[in-house]
Design a protein that fits this description.
Layout lengths: L3 H10 L2 H9 L7 E4 L9 E4 L10 H17 L19 H10 L1
Antiparallel strand pairs: 1-2
């Protein structure tokens, strides 16, 4: 059963965005890609590689994930964006730490 943010998205959006994501191949740590929003009423989902293959986040992975995602937001001229706490939970950072890195970035 999918867990965390990914699981919540799969539950509401369905698997279509994740099939699209799978076609892009492995993401470099800190990178971001865009897919459709599936069944969600949004324009897109921006997926980031905020944790490494050992399920650990770092200040670098959190910061570069935000930068990569915001590059997509700005390139596409989106007027709003919502972020989960990158690196919190399974990534090992506390929600407060993750939020602090994201806000500073």
């Amino acid at each position: 059963m999918p867990q965390g943010v990914s699981g919540a998205i799969k539950k509401k959006a369905g698997y279509a965005p994740f099939r699209e994501l799978g076609r892009t191949g492995a993401l470099k740590l800190g990178s971001a890609v865009i897919t459709s929003a599936g069944k969600l009423p949004y324009q897109a989902i921006i997926h980031v590689a905020g944790i490494n293959m050992f399920w650990c986040a770092s200040a670098y992975s959190i910061r570069t994930s935000v930068i990569s995602a915001m590059h997509i937001v700005n390139t596409r001229n989106y007027t709003s964006v919502a972020f989960p706490l990158i690196g919190a939970g399974s990534g090992g950072f506390s929600p407060e730490q993750a939020l602090q890195f994201m806000q500073k970035t």
